[in-house]
Amino acid sequence: MVRxxxxxxxxxxxxxxxxxxxxxxxxEMTRLGLPVPPGFTLTTEACRAFLETGSExxxxxxxxxxxxxxxxxxAGRSLGQPDDPLLLSVRSGAKxxxxxxxETILDIGLNDDSVLGLAMVSGSERFAWDSYRRLVQMFGxxxxxxxxxxxxxxxxLLKDQRDVQDDVHLTASDLAELVETYKNLIHLETGDxxxxxxxxxxxxxxxxxxxxxxxxxxxxxRRREHIADGLGTAVNVQRMVFGNxxxxxxxxxxxxxxxxxxxxxxxxxxxxxAQGEDVVAxxxxxxxxxxxxxLDATSYDELCTHMRTLERHYRDLxxxxxxxxxxxxxxxxxxxxKRTAEAAFxxxxxxxxxxxxxxxxxxxxxxxxxxxxxxFPRFDASATGTALAHGIPASPGAAVxxxxxxxxxxxxRAAAGEKVILVRQETTPDDLPGMIAAQAVLTxxxxxxxxxxVVARGMGKVCVCGAEELIVDTETRRFTAADGTVVEESxxxxxxxxxxxxxxxxxxxxxxxxIRYLEDGRGGDPQGMDxxxxxxxxxxxxxxxxxxxxxxxxxxxxxxxxxxxxGAQGIGLCRTEHMFLGERRKLVEQMILAGTDAExxxxxxxxxxxxxxxxxxxxxAMDGLPVTxxxxxxxxxxxxxxxxxxxxxIATAQARGEEPDAHDVELLSAVNHMHEENPMLGLxxxxxxxxxxxxxxxxxxxxxxxxxxRLLAGGAPQAEIMVPLVGDVRELRLVRAEVQRVLAEIxxxxxxxxxxxxxxxxxxxxxxxxxxxxxxxxxxxxxGTNDLTQTTWxxxxxxxxxxxxxxxxxxxxxxxxxxxxxxxxxVGRLVDIAVxxxxxxxxxxxxxxxxxxxxxxxxxxxxxxxGLDYVSCSPFRVPVARLEAGRAALEETEGSDSR
Length: 899
Hints:
Elements: E1 5-7, H1 16-31, E2 39-42, H2 44-53, H3 60-75, E3 88-94, E4 104-108, H4 114-122, H5 125-142, H6 148-162, H7 172-190, H8 198-212, H9 216-225, E5 233-239, E6 250-257, E7 264-272, H10 276-281, E8 287-288, H11 291-295, H12 297-314, E9 318-325, E10 328-336, H13 341-353, H14 359-364, H15 368-374, E11 378-379, E12 389-390, E13 392-395, E14 398-404, H16 407-415, E15 420-424, H17 432-437, E16 440-443, H18 451-459, E17 462-465, E18 471-473, E19 478-480, E20 486-488, E21 492-496, E22 501-504, E23 509-510, H19 513-520, H20 529-545, E24 549-553, H21 557-565, E25 571-575, H22 585-593, H23 597-621, E26 626-630, H24 643-655, H25 662-674, H26 686-691, H27 695-712, E27 718-723, H28 729-750, E28 758-762, H29 765-769, H30 771-774, E29 780-783, H31 785-793, H32 797-803, H33 805-810, H34 827-841, E30 846-849, H35 857-866, E31 870-873, H36 878-888
Helix pairs in contact: 4-5, 5-7, 6-7, 13-15, 13-20, 15-36, 20-36, 21-23, 22-23, 23-27, 24-25, 27-28, 35-36
């Protein structure tokens, strides 16, 4: 028989699949002897069974009842007991943290009778009614489906009537009145009454938390964080402890190190006379954790001890929630803390230096995605001017955008291509779509552990919170700074998540310290050296352990030089068509319009020295490293003017009674002649080389002569010639014969040995499926995964991304675009076939990838597993690919999964 419920004393951190992250960590803290309120966990299996059938699995409630009886016996009182009630919290807890995305209900067990008993035993009538109104509000919105804003409006109206700013200034009678208002609201909205039975409250709360796994915001968050929909959530039922019992009580959130910077020290927020949700919601501004030492030195010292215990035990940054109930400290949660990219690198290096983790573990705890964020520009400090406001720097980075004041507006305007800054008093889980759409989040309330801060850090989104001097008015859609400056919606502002500053207008950007380090080996700002050191250590370790080489896609000597500085080990794709643009386009036009072989030969002869000069520069920049040069790939009509533009020019001239330009007429005729319904599958790639006389010869001669020039200059050029879009070995055989003929001719004339391997791009499913035959002629393969993805899926990327990709993502057809992360099941299968069959024919076959996937972190791991020799990507992504190639070699090493 399946077991669905586990006591906290029965689990451990290695049971997160079953007990969820929260439940497994509560069990681990219990096992460590930390002060954890007792409770039990309903498993993710129970949730999945409920979601599949729509009803609780057989035997579940019998198990819950048995564990509840044990909990009641240990407490010496029963759930909802009228004179001294045992109260419970019901919290979600999936395997991966989803802050605020699912539901929590506190104070289960209170009703019209037990609230009086709670007032009696606690000695605080106000506390009892405050707890009751929290239960009715949470239960009404979470379980009974009443819009939470209806409760908030009732609370705001009561505070206005009593002329108070905060909930804490409402009296017991005020709160009792509010409970009745809430209960009447529930009945009005649902036709049902708030349940007075404690067991009914518990049962319905548990099922509501299960159901919240499929709530809209939970699904959206999972898509954003790539969390599988089938995991389900556990539910934790725990004895309530109260931080809202007066000045000697309170709640807080703490980190063992700064989650924004990674620096050592205790960081967090504390709120006296408050429950935990008050801290996270940001509805009252917290005090720094250090203030707790003054308020309650004993609890502070005990908390510090527990935090050190947890960091040593987990060997990582820990995020901790705690409550102090009348001077007694209780630990309510711990997890591996979410952190910014900067903090991840600093923390990994620090923990390795301290000997808590190994260098390989340190590498596993950072990511290429995080490194890419650190390479983004930051604000130029010399051009910022006076700040409009300062808040808490919750998630670093620089963002510029127009101000919006609600989530829906942020989504709409971002979808139209506008960069927006979401400004709120505080965020709630319902703001998640807008937070995803915005460049940055700015709030006037909350601290480093508020909802806005935690979620933004997890997404790598710029965030400044707790900017108390701002008066945010979402009704009139404006905020007012301390100096009286009014910022209306649609005004451009700049948000610095590293310093907490907010500026009017668009502040100029400069290179980050990490980019400066990668460019010249040194950081520019001493304050940034911690993160630069962390990046340097991670890259050094990655270069030591990785098997995959990393090359760059580069078409100019300047790109090649930068790629080499960034650590590229060669060029995996040099696109020759980019050398035909600008002024050279006229020569290509002449070649296309040539009426005779002699005219075509003259045009090609004019192009030859220009191509040769380009190749010499790139080979010199990459001296001693391989340079893979792709022969011309795109259809020739792409080098001609636009059809509509030509037709309009000719029609305009005719309308004026003038003779159209003869060259325009000739070009339009050529464009019409070369028109293709689907150019991606038309006359391009190897087909061009076989159909257009002299084209391959000219390009190969330019390559051969450039190699010769570099050899005679004492260089060590390593040119490789790549034939694109091959679908059949006979195509490659014909082109290769011409390549070898031209190179042999140059070699004899110059008296040098030219060793230029000839290979092909695998861009078509047929090429992958016949790779064994193609390898008879190819000395290397390079997967062009952009076109291979298009031809495998039957997509035209330019059309489908705008037309229906968003719908496919929403409907779960894709978890991410196959053009961003490799489709392992389809395209990846073709890669595996081509690698296996190609090397069966030619064991020394060198294989790489030069599509955009070569710099995608997830795809790099696949290419490592598939046995490729190298990945190639844009110069900017070379450090990312280096890092991920190293991490791919350590797949069995435990990372820092803070999801």
